[in-house]
Amino acid sequence: MKLDTLLAALPLAFRKLNPRQMIHSPVMFTVLIGSIVCTAVSIQQLAIGSDSAVFSIIVTVWLWLTVLFGNLSEAIAEGRGKAQADSLRAARTSVMARRRTRALVPAGQAGAGRDSDGNTVYDEELVPGTDLEVGDIVICEAGDLIPSDGDVIEGLASVDESAITGESAPVIRESGGDRSSVTGGTMVLSDRIVIRITAASGKTFLDRMISLVEGATRQKTPNEIALNVLLASLTIVFVVAVMTLAPMANFASALPTPVVLVALLVCLIPTTIGALVPAIGIAGMDRLIQRNVLATSGRAVETAGDITTLLLDKTGTITYGNRRAVNFIAADGVNQQVLIETARLSSLADETPEGRSIVELALGDPGSKGAQDVTAQLTVDVDVIEFSAVTRMSGLNLPVGHPANSTSAVLEVRKGAASAVERYVKERGGFLPQELAEAVANISGTGGTPLLVATYNGERAQALGVIHLADVVKPGMKERFAELRAMGIKTIMITGDNKITAAAIAAEAGVDDFVAEATPEDKLAVIKAEQEAGRLVAMTGDGTNDAPALAAADVGVAMNSGTSAAKEAANMVDLDSDPTKLIDIVGIGKQLLITRGSLTTFSVANDVAKYFAIVPALFAATFPGLGLLNIMGLASPESAILSAVIFNALVIVALVPLALRGVKYRAVSAARALSRNLLIFGLGGVIAPFIGIKLIDLLVSLIPTIAQR
Amino acid sequence: MDLNVFSLATQLAVLIVVLAALHQPLGKYLANTFTSHKHLAVEHGLYKLSGVDAHADQHWKVYLRSLLAFSVVSIVLLFLAQLLQRFLPLNQGMGAVDPWVAMNTAVSFVTNTNWQTYVPETTLGFGIQMMLLAVQNFLSAAVGLAVVVALIRGLTRAQTSNLGNFWVDLARGTLRVLLPMAIVGAVVLIITGVIQNWGGTNIHTLVTGAQQTVPGGPVASQEAIKLLGTNGGGYFNANSAHPFENPTAFSSLFQVFLILVIPFSLPAMYGRMVGDKRQGYTVLTVMVAFWLASTIFMSWAIGAFNGSGTSVGEGFEQRLGVAPSALFATATTLTSTGAVNVAHDSLPPLAGGLAMLNMMLGEIAPGGVGSGLYGMLILAVVAVFIGGLMVGRTPEFLGKKIGAPQMKLVALYILVTPTLVLLGTAITVATPALAAAAPAEGPHGFSEILYAFTSAANNNGSAFGGITSSGPGLATMLALAMLIGRFLPIALVLALAGSLAKQRKIPATTGTLATHGPLFAVLLGGISLILTALTYFPALALGPAAEGLLK
User: Distance of CA A177 to CAs A284, A540, B490, Å?
Assistant: First the structure.
């Protein structure tokens, strides 16, 4: 951790000493009360010149430090978000908006109030962006900052959204469709758009982001509340145990000073986790924000950890958006390299992703290396045959003398839909070899798209072979799905493809289930069915028609490029519009919970050692036999108590980085995660304080007044 | 007396073999009893007579209200009967009981505590012993069974707040489970030599010419349910150290068996009722582990600190010796029984401390009839909460989410007993008039008080006998501890059951924390130890540890 972040957080840590804030954490509030009591006792002891004043003062100081360390962890976590919020706030500078007022002439009067193109003419007025209301219509032109969130209802513009996404490339926003939403604070770079405002001032996406990253609207999440209940009850148990200890010890004529009792109490209550709970929660949100995902609530992050079903769109999430060439199949008697070179030629002018993928595969294919010296480029004399919906083919006509044309006539090179090319070949005296017909059927049968490649040299057309186009599953997806399965998460692929294609991709990607020929209503139905069975569902979506499903899903992640209806319905927005991130989001949710659970375990397990430090120190003077419990061999009762208190405070500081970073999260089954964390934080939590307290004792016992026994 | 390791091992082995053979069949029988839809003819008659609608499925609040109403009526009845003993049949000439003692005794028997402020031989006749105390022995145990069954129903049911019918559960627990077992138990006890007569008080003339009065009575019939129902109220003041109640080493072992048999079979019932036997085995493993560890440590503590040689010290039964005493003392404090075959006051300090620790653990290993299992399941909820987080899920227990509402109930449950024990002890030691009831000097006197409140709040009923609890002050405080220690946790358990039943069931996946298997057992054991026992560490340090650890 950097020193300046620490220093920046310090003032906030002191401000958080306000009891009205402290009361939200019952554990730390108890420590605060204890510190105040000890301060009073120390002052009184100092006044009467008591021998134990030095000891009391040191304990008191460390108690205050315990409180401060707790506040500091929260302040550091909040500080991280603050920097981000400041940069966002800069984008929210007050903007003047061009608001459209009523039409000059009431609509309906023929000819009136229309410009030369027949469009209705409106009057405009300049108003501050903060005065805009939902439903207002504003106009933005190149160079304007968009005053508030809205939907484009007219026009198309390129918009710079870097203020929000950090992505410098401009995006296109246009009326209608799924790219109609614009965000306040972003800038129109070109053209002119008309926007209907969908968020009132102070409630825009940007405002929500700011308050989220600042933690201003941070409310305790359900699990945090439940954990606090447990921590509060542990605190009360120990308050009772320590308060009742006073009369009991008095009965044995071994009444400890209030300072010692407070020290015992503070060591026993779960201060470690109590101090770190807020920081863990803030850090969890922060991890999402760092990955450019905004959650509308901490609750959504928590729920992400519970997800048992992931609904994934095939396109863009599991596969690359487009079909790609994956194989060349040559006809009998046709040289494979000839086929590859011809296929490449046929696609040289084809700028579609499919066409480019053919060129890439041809060049990247080791088999084509031998043919590289004959690699021909487009020259001016080559006729480009564009794809058309009628011919369903594209290709080139190579003139005589072109390096790739060894014939003495114009060589026609074609590739296209199997049926179209088959007809092309047959009409020109050729035929479709049996093996190619089979290959075409095979590829179709497994969900791929077959393209036939043919040439015609003016005499007879020849079918050279087949290009296999397929949806290509992104690398590593199969492994990720296997991980998810190990974690008990079921994946369902949603696609508009037919069943055969969908089944093939599903098998290749290794998803557990798929829904083919899916409509947005199907998504909603799948979610409802899964939830009916008690499972929690996460999904991504961007279109307006995804909105009901996004709202129904337990975790709905909208793409920032999507419509405002989708963003409104979702409980998370991914600024990068990367649907694959859903998997990361689940991981972040789990990591948040794991961190909370592990530190709770550690905190509770710590108590064992503290008992062995403090209890013998309390009563060994009266009952020497209890000295046997001093298994750590601590130097004196004072040093024992002090060491426990110091350890208790320092362990908070030591764990702050872990709380902020999160416990290392691995995609493994629950049983393995538990055994690992139980070993590290449970067993480690029992052992660590024995070592820590002993080490501190060795140092503390160097203080003259503390050392004697 | 030195510990005879062979004797201990043999007796433990016999217990383990017999309990291992019985727990599954008995668990199955229990599960069938509480899930069957058929009523026995005698039950039909009872329902008709008392106007109970046996088909009504009760909301958890109604279930609780029925339970509380039944218990309040029982307490009042028991209290009045003692005051009016003079007018009741079979009173053997004994008159009204002191009202403070009567109040304490009424509460004690209805809460399954069976703390005995009274001296049975001189206070209560056959009539009250048989018709009221023995009946409460059955009913208070059946109430415990009903509560744990309701909790299990909360775990298994979905989208309802109803937990079954208290009256049906009470009747079945009594008539189908406890009564037949108690009859068999009584017969075996009679065979071992426990008396069962109407002999009243016999006067014998000894060879020396001195006259000795020896009271008799229907002991075996009451003895069986005293142990089976983890009640512990002895027919005689000396309890199971009395030769008429516990004549031989065999009867002593059999009594330990009776104490343990139902509590150790409840996990099997639980496993069957939730449809996953492994759940039951895991809970059972934790219980057995605590029981074995405690028994062995108890034997060691008694053997090592009780002087060497052939005779055990004051307060021990010479007939029995170390191993049977240790077995009995462990079983009685790890369950809510409180019957004794050795004066716990006379246990060496560390052994006495262990007896307290056993109770402080919350009597969960295996615990009282019903109360042991529901106590353990509450701790399992805490274990699930912490463990569930550690695997990256918000916690769920058998498909039910453990959220803030559930944790509130569990947190309160955990608070109840330590607060009662520590507060009661603190008030007593801070009040000289009350503290005077414990005459022993120094830490031992403190132990007597701590033991009394530990025993009362945990509904155990055994005592460090040196303490006199018949005065108004202690009798009232202990009665309060018993009442709150019994019914507040029950109310919380039923509320929890209601909130669990309301939820739908979440199917388990590999990402779900498994609540079975060694890993969870370790977690559950660790949490039980840290959350319950450690709370008392400072208090124990002032009592048994201060007395027992010598430099």
Answer: 34, 17, 60
Q: How many domains does chain B have?
A: 1
* Pairing label, strands A513-515, A411-417: unpaired
Look at residue B60 and tell me if it is in a domain.
no
Q: State the ipTM, two decimals.
A: 0.92
- Per-residue buried b or exposed e for B74-83, using 16+ beta carbons within 10 Å of the residue's own CB: bbeebbebbb
Pairing state of beta strands A96-103 and A572-574?
unpaired
B231 close to B255: Cβ distance less than 8 angstroms: no
Residue B467 within any structural domain of the chain: yes
pLDDT at A346 over 90: no
8 A C-beta contact, residue A220 and residue B404:
no
Q: Given the structure tokens 């109640």, which residue do they identify?
A: B245
CB contacts of A225 in chain B (<8 Å) are 404
Q: Is the dihedral of CA A246, A249, A253, A259 positive or negative?
A: negative
What contacts A101, CB < 8 A, 6 or more positions away? A122, A123, A124, A125
Rg (CA), chain A: 35
Residue numbers of A between 658 and 677 with CB closer than 8 Å to B: 665, 669-671, 673-675, 677
Collapsing DSSP to helix, strand or coil, B212 comes out as strand
> Within 13 Å of residue A230, how many CA atoms lie on the same side as its CB?
30
List, as ranges, residues 423-482 from B with C-beta within 8 Å of A.
423, 425-427, 429-430, 435, 442-443, 446
Is A313 one of the catalytic residues?
Answer: yes
Tokens describing residue A251: 């009965």
- Asked whether B267 and B27 are in contact (CB, 8 A), the reply is yes
CB interface of A with B, residues 571-630, below 8 Å: 589-591, 593-594, 596-598, 600-601, 604-605, 607-608, 611, 615-616, 618-619, 622-629
Buried/exposed A182-195: b ≥16 CB within 10 Å, e otherwise: bbbbbbbeebebbb
Contact B401, B507 (CB under 8 A): no
How many contacts, defined by CB atoms under 8 Å, are there between A and B? 229
d(CA B339, CA A80): 62
Whether residue B413 lies inside any domain: the answer is yes
Nearest chain B Cα to A618, which residue?
B538
Rounded (10°) angle between helices B277-305 and B249-273: 150
Domain span including residue B513: 370-550
Q: Give the span between the Cα atoms of A139 and A440, in whole angstroms.
A: 53
- Output the pTM of the full model: 0.85
What is the C-alpha to C-alpha distance for residues A542 and A560, in angstroms, rounded to an integer?
8
Is the residue at B536 inside a domain? yes
Q: Within 13 Å, how many C-alpha atoms sit on residue B131's CB side?
A: 13
Q: What is the pLDDT along chain B (551 residues), one digit of tens a residue?
A: 678 899 999 999 999 999 999 999 999 999 999 999 999 999 999 999 999 999 999 999 999 999 999 999 999 999 999 999 999 888 888 889 999 999 999 999 999 999 998 888 888 888 888 888 999 999 999 999 999 999 999 999 999 989 999 999 999 999 999 999 999 999 999 999 999 988 767 777 777 878 887 888 889 999 999 999 999 988 888 899 998 999 999 999 999 999 999 999 999 999 999 999 999 999 999 999 999 999 999 999 998 876 655 556 788 888 888 899 999 999 999 999 999 999 998 898 899 999 999 999 999 999 999 999 999 999 999 999 999 889 888 899 999 999 999 999 999 999 999 999 999 999 999 999 998 888 888 889 999 999 999 999 999 999 888 888 887 889 999 999 999 999 999 999 999 999 999 998 888 888 888 999 999 999 999 999 988 878 898 999 999 998 888 75
DSSP bridge pairs for A454: A414, A463
CB A706 within 8 A of CB A642: yes
Among residues A149, A207, A313, A546, the one annotated as catalytic is: A313
